[in-house]
Specification:
Its EC number is 3.6.5.4. Keywords: Cell membrane, Cytoplasm, GTP-binding, Hydrolase, Membrane, Nucleotide-binding, Receptor, Transmembrane, Transmembrane helix. This is Signal recognition particle receptor FtsY. Involved in targeting and insertion of nascent membrane proteins into the cytoplasmic membrane. Acts as a receptor for the complex formed by the signal recognition particle (SRP) and the ribosome-nascent chain (RNC). The chain is of the alpha/beta class. The protein is built from twelve helices and eight strands. β2, α7 and β3 (159-161) form a beta-alpha-beta unit. The longest helix is centred in the C-terminal third of the chain and has 18 residues, at 200-217. The chain binds guanosine-5'-diphosphate. Residues 109, 111-117, 254-255, 257-258, 280-283, 287 line the site of guanosine-5'-diphosphate.
């Protein structure tokens, strides 16, 4: 986490730079408050949460008679932290069931957001913890997707269950992966899926079928929605659709190492009512970290 903190801080945030500018003024005018709110909006915090946060902050500043902008910054930090909601349970559930079935983690999201990479990184984390893992390549739409997953699997030293045919039934592959995981007594089965959003009904059918078929063998421990933090509002729309079709239990926010503005964390948690559990901080195998609200807010305010 120290590493995460360092890296988020180093990336510097556009929010932080502008906030610093506004909060270094002698006192805050009406325009300054507007600018603060606009800065939150530009950082993807979302219109509702931004307005509420500024309103609450202004009230506190007035009631407590705060004059010093540095103090305002401390209060802003507290307010942002409350929005990110440090009390949410962000633990991944990856425990085997009482009857010995593996924990099944279904990874969903639009193509290109970082699903396969996340599955690979997560497998590595689990293996490092001494857990046994099987991967399921249920993105059968493109053979390249299964190849990519298998490459991650061999790098990490875990088996990948896949189909040799393009366009094989993704639910059948997911089922095979879980059944194999169960018969071999592995701890966790990670299932990678396709995310073609052109057709919501099709996506719903596909994910619905995968879910039904998996749960014949083992209950789903987690449905992780992978969102690319650099896509801002678009990510929020994706969250909405997947939230409706997939029973999401946690969010993985990828590409926070890039130009991401990060405030999307607040917006997606609100939208789906589920916490951001993991963050992607690069393309490498070690670039996955648990989401740490404090480090995150400090990163925003750097
Ligand atoms: P999928 O189509 O959702 O499975 O996405 P991929 O896992 O293939 O990832 C798409 C691209 O995003 C690849 O080039 C990945 O290396 C890259 N990527 C994934 N996660 C991250 C991340 O956290 N940071 C950065 N910078 N790139 C990432």
């Amino acid at each position: 986490l120290a590493r995460l903190r360092g890296r988020l801080a180093r990336s510097g945030s556009p929010l932080g730079a502008r906030l610093l500018q506004v909060l270094s003024r002698d006192h805050l005018t009406e325009d300054d408050w507007d600018e603060l709110e606009e800065t939150l909006l530009l950082a993807d915090v979302g219109a509702g949460p931004s307005a509420e946060l500024i309103e609450a902050l202004r009230t506190r500043v007035r009631v407590e008679g705060v004059k010093d902008p540095a103090h305002v910054r401390t209060m802003l930090r507290e307010q942002l932290l409350a929005l990110v909601d440090p009390a949410l349970d962000r633990e991944l559930s990856t425990a085997r069931t009482a009857d010995g079935a593996p924990a099944v983690v279904l990874v969903v999201g639009v193509n290109g957001t970082g699903k396969t990479t996340t599955v690979g990184k997560l497998a590595r984390v689990l293996v490092a913890e001494g857990r046994t893992v099987v991967l399921g390549a249920a993105d059968t739409f493109r053979a390249a997707a299964a190849d990519q997953l298998q490459t991650w699997g061999s790098r990490v030293g875990v088996h990948t269950v896949r189909s040799d045919r393009d366009g094989a039934d993704p639910a059948a592959v997911a089922f095979d992966a879980v059944r194999q995981g169960r018969s071999e007594g592995v701890d966790v089965v990670l299932v990678d899926t396709a995310g073609r959003l052109q057709n919501k009904a099709g996506l719903m059918d596909e994910l619905g079928k995968i879910t039904r078929v998996i749960t014949r063998e083992a209950p789903l421990s987690e449905v992780l929605l992978v969102l690319d933090a650099t896509t801002g509002q678009n990510g929020l729309n994706q969250a909405r659709v997947f939230g409706e079709v997939a029973g999401v239990t946690g969010i993985v926010l990828t590409k926070l190492d890039g130009t991401a503005k990060g405030g999307i964390v607040v917006a997606v948690q609100r939208e789906l009512g589920v916490p951001v559990k993991l963050v992607g901080l690069g393309e490498g195998p070690d670039d996955l970290a648990p989401f740490d609200p404090e480090a995150f807010v400090d990163g925003l305010l750097e």
